[in-house]
Design a protein that fits this description.
single chain; mainly beta; 5-stranded antiparallel sheet; 16 strands; 33% strand
Length: 332
């Protein structure tokens, strides 16, 4: 098996390699949130159309502090992610400064959660508000760790929509990401063609197993309401050998400025290859800004049912870079 060769820093990369996945057999590939099927729903968020390429916030913006882990405190004291088996009313609470040894700690979480309310977001924007109750990490096998459990509650009669990430109320504003499945067939086909062309032209395509094989766009989302648009997409190419099928998946962030797709550029990407049922790649969960700040952020997560971690990319004057990576809860 060829292990993932990723663009993120080593902690997020190495912690989700094969040793974590092989601790328990995984019957099949699991998307980070299979329940999310409605990313094209209209958003209740209304981000401004200011350029996202700006630098630090204005003097009158909300004060933020970047911690030693890279987490921007303007986004709040934690982020809650749904898990593959948690349904809509539970998830995992990720503390930004936790280490692999302290992922299950809950000390100080109650005080940090203020009034205990969370805003729930899908890729399309804000989808609801819930009350948070934090429980200790679930019991796991020896040699394994888990994040604390985040339980959600809503008022009677309120329906919880599928969500991809949750933050403390008033901390972030979503930048809507629209699925290309909502485009007219001609437009989606043209966009898919542009994405596969960009993917095929990446300089680090060094695998003789997959070189020359066509990419297929699995999922793709594009921004709405930004002057400097971007696209997030997952592509794949496969070797369909019956006795030894292999797959390569590629996650790309494309700066799609202007209507001329030939001028678009891949600003960040992550490549992973191996057996289909064992592949785990970064899943885009949310594009957002901290309230009062101009910088565009992209939250990614990985959850294969055994290991769970997250990372945030930010776009500044010099392009996209990794701002923060969480510790990873899983099995050694």
């Amino acid at each position: 098996m060829t292990y993932p060769r990723l663009s993120m820093r080593s902690s997020f990369r190495d912690s989700l390699r094969a040793p974590l996945r092989s601790a328990r057999a995984i019957a099949g590939a699991v998307g980070l949130l299979a329940a999310v099927a409605c990313d094209s729903r209209p958003s209740s968020s209304n981000p401004d159309s200011a350029s996202a390429a700006g630098g630090p916030g204005n003097a009158d913006s909300v004060s933020t502090t970047v911690s030693s882990s890279g987490w921007d405190s303007g986004a709040g004291p934690f982020v809650v992610l749904p898990t593959v088996d948690g349904g809509l009313m539970a998830g995992s609470l990720l503390r930004p400064d936790a280490s692999e040894l302290t992922v299950g700690d809950t000390a100080g979480v109650g005080a940090a959660s203020a009034d205990g309310r969370l805003e729930l977001f899908a890729r399309s924007g804000k989808v609801g508000v819930a009350r948070l109750t934090v429980e200790g990490a679930p019991r796991v096998d020896e040699g394994c760790t888990a994040w604390p459990v985040a339980r959600l509650a809503v008022d009677a009669g309120v329906t919880v929509a599928p969500w991809t990430a949750a933050f403390a109320v008033g901390r972030v504003t979503a930048i809507p990401l629209d699925s290309i499945e909502g485009l007219a067939s001609r437009d989606s086909a043209r966009l898919a063609t542009d994405l596969t062309r960009l993917a095929s032209g990446l300089a680090d395509d060094t695998s003789s197993t997959f070189r020359g094989l066509p990419f297929v766009v699995m999922r793709a989302w594009r921004t709405r309401g930004l002057d400097t648009a971007f696209i997030v997409a997952t592509l794949a190419r496969r070797v369909n050998q019956e006795d030894d099928p292999k797959e390569e998946r590629l996650v790309v962030v494309v700066d799609a400025i202007g209507d001329n797709a030939k001028a678009w550029t891949v600003a960040w990407h992550e490549r992973a290859a191996g057996h289909e049922e064992e592949l785990v790649v970064a899943e885009p969960l949310l594009a957002f800004r901290n309230v009062g700040a101009p910088d565009v952020r992209l939250l990614f997560g990985r959850d294969d049912g055994v290991a769970l971690g997250a990372a945030v990319l930010t776009r500044g004057r010099s392009g996209w870079r990794v701002l923060w990576e969480s510790a990873v809860a899983g099995c050694n």
